[in-house]
Design goal:
The chain is 41% helix and 18% strand. By secondary structure, it is of the alpha/beta class. The longest helix is centred in the N-terminal third of the chain and has 22 residues, at 93-114. It is globular. Bound molecules: nicotinamide-adenine-dinucleotide and uridine-diphosphate-N-acetylglucosamine. Residues 6-7, 9-13, 30-36, 58-60, 80-84, 99, 103, 122, 124, 177, 180 line the site of nicotinamide-adenine-dinucleotide.
C-alpha cells in the first residue's frame, strides 16, 4: 500500500518523502510543479536510492486524481499541495480559495470515491491569529486570520472536521506548522523560492550567498528581549519526521486530531542572524527597517501534545538549522 503525497515536490513535501521512504512506506507523488521542480523528486531518489513514482497532476483535476487512485493502491494521503504566499493571497484571493480549498475538496471527493479515508493535512500556526499569547496550544481559539492564505487553512480545518462528523471512519490529522527552515543534511534538497523571498531564513541565506545585498529587519522596538520579532523555527527534517509519526497514528485510529509541530522555543530575528553567521562564517549585512504590517510580535508553540500522543519532539537546534540551510544554499546558489 502507498501513501499519496500531494505537493510532494515542494519544500516540506520532498523532505517528508525522504523520511517516509526511510520508514518503509511506498510513496506516490502528485504535483503540478507550480512552485517546484521534478528535479527535487529526482534528488529525493538520489538520497533514498528509490525511483519515485510521480504524476504531473493538478489536484483540482478530478479525472486525473481518479486515475491515480485507480492505478495505485493508496491507503492514505499526506496533503501539502497549495499556494502559500501571504502577500500574494491578499492580491489574488480567488486563486488562493480556488487552489487551496477547491483543490482540497476535489481531493477529498477522490479519496471518498476510492474508499481511502486517512489524511494528514498541512495547516499553519497562522490559524491562531494574533489574539492568543504564546506558547500556543491546540485548544486555543482560532479564527482571527488576517489574510486569505490563513483563511484557507482555517476553512480547510473546518471542512475536515465536518467530513468526520458525516462519516466516523475518517482518520484525519491536522498539523499546524510553526516556521520550517533548514534543509536535508545531504545539501541536495532545500527551500527554493521562485521570487525574492518573503520569509526570513531564505532571505538571510540569499544575502549570504550574494544573491541579495542586504536584509531588512522589520522592527527593533517590539517588547521582546532584543526588540525584534520572535518565532519558533523548526528544522524541516524534524517536521518531516513529525509527519511519519502522525501518519502512523492516522492509520491506526479514526477521528480528527490536531497537533502543533514546533520546538516550543522562541528565537528572535537578531538571534537567527547571529546563528547563521556562526554556521556559515559569512557576515549578514542588515539594516533596521519599519515594522511589517500584520506581523505578530511573538509566536511559538506549546509542543507537548505531539510529544505525549505521537511520541514526537523536534531534535535539531537553531545552529544545525542554519548549517543545513547554508550547505543547501552554498551548493545550489540558484536553487534546483
Ligand atoms: P511549496 O510551495 O514548496 O510546496 C507546495 C507544493 O504544492 C509545490 O510543489 C507546488 O507545485 C504544489 N502545488 C500547489 N498547488 C497545486 C495543485 N493545485 N495541484 C498540485 N500541486 C500543487 O510549499 P511548502 O513550504 O512545502 O508547503 C507545503 C504545505 O505546507 C503548504 O500547504 C503550505 O501552505 C503549508 N505550510 C507551509 C509553511 C512554510 O513555512 N513553508 C508553514 C505552514 C504551512
Ligand atoms: C510568515 C507568514 C505566515 C506563515 C509563516 C511560515 C506573513 C505575514 N506571515 O510568518 O502566514 O505561516 O511565514 O511560512 O508573511 N523578517 C524580517 N525581515 C525579512 C523577513 C522577515 O525582519 O525580510 C522578520 C519578521 O518580521 C518576523 C520574522 O522575521 O519577525 C519571521 O518572518 P517570516 O519568516 O516571514 O515568518 P512569519 O512572520 O512567522
Amino acid at each position: 500500500m502507498s501513501v499519496l503525497v500531494t505537493g510532494g515536490a515542494g519544500y516540506i513535501g520532498s523532505h517528508t518523502c525522504v523520511e517516509l521512504i526511510g520508514a518503509g512506506y511506498d510513496v506516490v507523488i502528485a504535483d503540478n510543479f507550480s512552485n517546484s521542480s521534478p528535479e527535487a523528486i529526482r534528488r529525493v531518489g538520489e538520497i533514498t536510492g528509490k525511483n519515485l513514482k510521480y504524476y504531473d497532476c493538478d489536484i483540482r483535476d478530478a479525472e486525473h486524481l481518479g486515475k491515480i487512485f485507480a492505478e495505485n493502491k493508496i491507503s492514505s494521503v499526506i496533503h501539502f499541495a497549495g499556494l502559500k504566499a501571504v502577500g500574494e493571497s491578499v492580491q489574488k484571493p480567488l486563486e488562493y480559495y480556488d487552489n487551496n480549498i477547491g483543490g482540497t475538496i476535489v481531493l477529498l471527493e477522490a479519496m471518498k470515491n476510492a474508499g481511502c479515508k486517512k489524511l494528514v493535512f498541512s495547516s499553519s500556526a497562522t490559524v491562531y491569529g494574533d489574539g492568543n499569547a504564546s506558547p500556543l496550544k491546540e485548544d486555543m481559539p482560532t479564527g482571527e486570520t488576517t489574510n486569505p492564505y490563513g483563511s484557507t487553512k482555517l476553512y480547510i480545518e473546518r471542512i475536515l472536521q465536518d467530513i468526520h462528523v458525516s462519516d466516523s471512519e475518517w482518520g484525519i490529522t491536522i498539523l499546524r506548522y510553526f516556521n520550517p527552515i533548514g534543509a536535508h543534511k545531504s545539501g541536495l534538497i532545500g527551500e527554493n523560492p521562485r521570487d525574492i523571498p518573503n520569509n526570513l531564513m531564505p532571505y538571510i541565506s540569499q544575502v549570504a550567498v550574494g544573491r541579495l545585498c542586504r536584509l531588512n529587519v522589520f522592527g527593533d522596538d517590539y517588547d521582546t528581549r532584543d526588540g525584534t520579532g520572535v518565532r519558533d523555527y523548526i528544522h524541516v527534517s524534524d517536521l518531516a519526521d513529525g509527519h511519519v509519526k502522525a501518519l502512523k497514528k492516522t492509520l491506526a485510529e479514526n477521528g480528527v486530531r490536531i497537533y502543533n509541530l514546533g520546538t516550543g522555543k522562541g528565537v528572535s530575528v537578531l538571534e537567527l542572524i547571529r546563528a547563521f553567521e556562526k554556521a556559515s562564517g559569512k557576515k549578514i549585512d542588515y539594516k533596521i527597517a519599519p515594522r511589517r504590517d500584520g506581523d505578530v510580535v511573538v509566536c511559538y508553540a506549546d509542543a507537548d501534545k505531539a510529544m505525549l500522543e505521537l511520541g514526537w519532539r523536534a531534535k535539531r537546534d537553531i545552529l544545525e538549522m542554519c548549517e543545513d540551510t547554508w550547505r543547501w544554499q552554498k551548493n545550489n546558489p540558484e536553487g534546483f
